[in-house]
Amino acid sequence: MTELEKLDAGLEYDFWDEGVNSRKLHAIEGCAKLNAIPVTEDTTREAAVRELFGSVGSNPTVLPVFNCDNGKNIHVGKNFLANYNVTILDIAPVNIGDYVMIGPNTLITTVNHPLSPRKRRGHIGQAKPVSIGRDVWIGGNCTILPGVTIGNNVVIAAGAVVTKDVPDNCVVGGVPAKMIREINDDTEENENEF
Fold it and tell me: Domain for residue 120, yes or no?
């Protein structure tokens, strides 16, 4: 298998491999283009987001400085907001539902590295996808780790580090993040309102 085939299969791969690095070039160029567009130029910024991401719903807002590893592995629903200084390391897919807000200085990462120093010296990485449901608010300075699934109608408290799956309809916080309380989903009553 090539290193890209290993990466895509969720196996350990060499992150210095030329094929793996070529995916990052798209992201480097796309992020530089997006970050250079003034925030007041909504239409131009939206076009740059659509060019960078794999798929985008209506009304995306991605504020500077935004960084990612691939771009094409990011799939977002309608009314997506990434506030200032968000990083999405999308070596593996990152699927995000409708009405999701991501606070400033947040990291969503799909890549991990081994505990073995020998393997780290060998530039080994392993990727696991991240999935985020609809109506999720991720507070500022949060970290979402590889392989995590976050349900619908979830609030991630500022500063949380999410290491495990999060069920629907709750608030989580802390390091590592734990459930703080359940919350109601009041969107079903007036679904056509938005």
Answer: yes
